[in-house]
Amino acid sequence: MKLLLTSNGITNQSIEEALVDLLEKPISESRALFVPTGMYPFPGGGVMALEAARGRPNSPLSDLPW
Where are the domains of the chain? Predict the structure, then answer.
């Protein structure tokens, strides 16, 4: 199992390239598991986690072609 842990999703080109290197295939041919519990301690974290899980456009994860 390979994991890429980021504090705010895929927010720049170097993180996206690291993800593609880990996957060894394009992001569009991959699947992801999103674990939002790391957001909970922050102000509004529960709402941010829900929005990201719903694929809202304000989430850096929802811009990827999973």
Answer: 1-66
